[in-house]
Prior knowledge:
Blueprint: H1 2-12, E1 24-28, E2 31-38, E3 41-47, E4 54-58, E5 61-65, E6 67-71, E7 77-86, E8 92-101, E9 106-117, E10 121-131, E11 137-139, E12 143-147, E13 150-154, E14 156-160, E15 165-176, E16 181-191, E17 196-199, E18 203-207, E19 210-214, E20 217-220, E21 225-235, E22 239-249, E23 254-265, E24 270-280, E25 285-297, E26 302-315, E27 320-332, E28 337-346, E29 351-355, E30 359-362, E31 365-368, E32 371-377, E33 380-395, E34 402-415, E35 418-435, E36 442-457, E37 463-468, E38 473-477, H2 502-506, H3 532-541, H4 546-557
Antiparallel strand pairs: 1-4, 2-3, 3-6, 4-5, 5-7, 6-7, 7-8, 8-9, 9-10, 10-11, 10-12, 11-14, 12-13, 13-15, 14-15, 15-16, 16-17, 16-18, 17-20, 18-19, 19-21, 20-21, 21-22, 22-23, 23-24, 24-25, 25-26, 26-27, 27-28, 28-29, 28-30, 29-32, 30-31, 31-33, 32-33, 33-34, 34-35, 35-36, 36-37, 36-38
Domain Organic solvent tolerance-like N-terminal: 23-176
Organism: Rapidithrix thailandica
Protein name: OstA-like protein
Amino acid sequence: MKYIIALILGIFFIQTTQAQITKVEIVKAAKLNLNVMVDGISHKELTSDSTKRATLKRDSTMMYSDRALLEDVTNNLKAYGNILIVNPNGVTLTGDTLIYTSATGIAEVRGEEVVLKDSSTTLITDRLYYDMATGDARYQTGGIVTRNTTELTSEKGYYYRFQQIVTFKGEVELNDSVKVQHLETDTLVYNTINEVAYFPKKTLISTQDGDVITEAGEFDTKTSTTTSRGETHIESEEYILDAGNVRDNKNQGVGFAKKDVRLYSIKENSYIYADEIEYSKSAGNSKAYGRALMERPGDNDTLYLAADTLISVSDTVNNVKTLYAYHNVMIYSKQMLGVCDSLVYMYSDSMLYLYHDPVLWSDQSQIVADTISASIRNNSIEKMYMDQDAFLIQKDSILNYFNQIKGRNMVANFDSSYLKKVDVDGNGQCLYFVASEKDSVFMGMNKIDCSSMVMVFADSNKLSKMHFLYKPDAQFIPPHELEEPATRLPGFQNRFEEQPTFPVILSRKRRQDQLIPLEKKTAHKATPEPPEEKKEMLLEKGTPKQEDLEIADKLEEE
């Protein structure tokens, strides 16, 4: 964006005199004719030959032509052939015809190629209006502005000197094949006082850092901060961002997005949705808050993590990314549901750590512990670790009871989304309710205390085998001897009603539309290059003759 602003600044900043009527004066001519009548008006006629050109001046601005007609009364000027205007600050203007109105101070230059040029920037159009009194300038029939390897085209261009504003309108397009940047918009405005560029309509910006398409916005050249207003889409090699508003500081490498934000990590194949997201491009970190949601699609399932705040941290040394979730955390997938107060998710090995009152549900099973960690593969649990006060309950599909396993620590193994085995280490306790296989009549409850146990489950997640490894203490209690609260181990809690539902999760997914990346736009020339001979002619046309420059220097010294 900085190169865009440099281009704007380079072309229209022409030194002007104070806003008053200043007479055009004759400097020299090969031949001067007086009282030449044209349309009943008396003129002075200046003509040129091979050694001397028709030369006039307005203050310190020099005007050259093959033939000039200067009205005696109004001081209006018409000049024809090889028009050259030289400003003392080095800006030159060339064309075929010059029409100057003294009362307004406006000079109109016409021609097949009207060229306004300074030391670094060139504007080419076919008609340019320049107010010599105010310094305002405009073109309205299409123009091309070039600076080094950068080219800007637009249907109209305006410079308002008093307001210090430059405006380009109508199919504005900027390209730089060397710096690899491209801009498309309908209107581009630059305020030279606050040094801010505005794009009030839909704009596409493409650079080596990525692509931006926004409904409107501005760029502060002092701070290198881009602020978009309205729907904004940003793409880079690392991420794709959609939001209602975005503020991005290129120098600091940080940004802020708000209003229905969606951030997609290309490397991790994960989405983050939030009301607001702060991000650091240099560090690769982000903070999402306001009903935040992480979505990570897999081969057979999609993992969702919802929380008040999601913080993504990148370890650039080890190339590892970690997601931290804080407060009111919810987990949702086909295989697993969960809640906790805080969570850590390691993208590298898909390890999930749940802290502060964590609860997980898988099918008819509920798992609680002080801390729960799980190994995830293709968004399905492979192994789960329950540390301190582990408690697993399972709804019996036939009886109105919960089978229960309790211990100091547990390790659960899963296969194809089914619970296959649970290892209990320390202070193991188990309640298992038995029904007859023939008619499913309740027969009683097994109660086992054992330091270490192994529970094996069938494909239906139903407990099928139990192994007691060290001094088990078991008893069978028939139905008529079973009294409450004997059907529940100490610490039992039925928390199935706390399971997150998919509509609740989906309500945080602000953008339901499919994310479709922009077709990459590479910097290109907006218009074809003119033939070399025409190019040379334009360059030659825009370069004042040495004798004209010498005259201008002398007049400036005087």
